[in-house]
Amino acid sequence: MGSPLHYPADDANTPGNRGWLGTVLVALGYLWAGPNTIVAVAIGLLLGGRFETVNGVIEIEGSRIAAVLSRLPVPAAAMTVGHVVFGRDRGWLQVTRNHERVHVAQYAKWGPFFIPAYLFLSAWLYAQGKDGYRGNPFEIEAYAVDEPKD
Ligand SMILES: [Zn+2]
């Protein structure tokens, strides 16, 4: 949680001043993930989703987004693309917020390489007969935030 690229899920967890380096890294993360974010915003507009910004992350939900998320190869309650999180509805956006914020930070680090890296790892795991979703290191990191830490 000490990473400057950590995106808090609620105001109570909002870090104070990130320092100049942290602020620059966050700005670079927005730029680096920008192409993904722009495509996601366009998809959200096309699907007529409702937009809300929560702590620097755009959350988009609506019935057509819910329909798309439910038809994915791994049906999802929410999905992150750049600094955008799509959710079936506000309730799901809230429940999945900690998990999806980890993916936002991953996009900020990996930028245009995030989706290829994610898909490559999933395909590689599937090819070995393993779980390409829960076995994916990006998902392992994201699921870890909601696990109790003693
Ligand atoms: Zn995930």
Explain this structure to me?
The chain is of the alpha+beta class and 150 residues long. Helices cover 51% and strands 12% of the residues. It is built from seven helices and four strands. It has helices at 19-32, 34-46, 63-70, 90-95, 97-110, 114-127, 137-144; strands spanning 50-54, 57-61, 78-81, 84-87. The chain has a four-stranded mixed beta sheet, sandwiched between helices. Helix 1 packs across helix 5. The model has no long low-confidence stretch (mean pLDDT 91). Bound molecules: zinc ion (ZN). Zinc ion (ZN) is lined by residues 99, 103, 139, 142. The chain crosses the membrane at residues 20-47, 107-127.
Topology:
Blueprint (H helix, E strand, L loop, with lengths): L18 H14 L1 H13 L3 E5 L2 E5 L1 H8 L7 E4 L2 E4 L2 H6 L1 H14 L3 H14 L9 H8 L6
Parallel strand pairs: 2-4
Antiparallel strand pairs: 1-2, 3-4
The protein binds zinc ion.
The site of zinc ion has 4 residues, from α5 and α7.
User: Helicity level, as a percent range?
Assistant: 40-55%
Kindly state the number of beta strands. 4
Give the amount of beta strand, in percent: 5-15%
What is the number of helical segments per DSSP (H or I, 4+ residues)?
Answer: 7
Give me the side-by-side strand order of the main sheet. 1-2-4-3
- Largest sheet: number of strands, sense, barrel closure: 4 strands, mixed
Transmembrane segments: 20-47, 107-127
Keywords: Membrane, Transmembrane, Transmembrane helix
Question: Keyphrases for this structure?
Answer:
alpha+beta; four-stranded mixed β-sheet; 7 helices; binds zinc ion; 4 strands; 12% strand; single chain; 150 residues
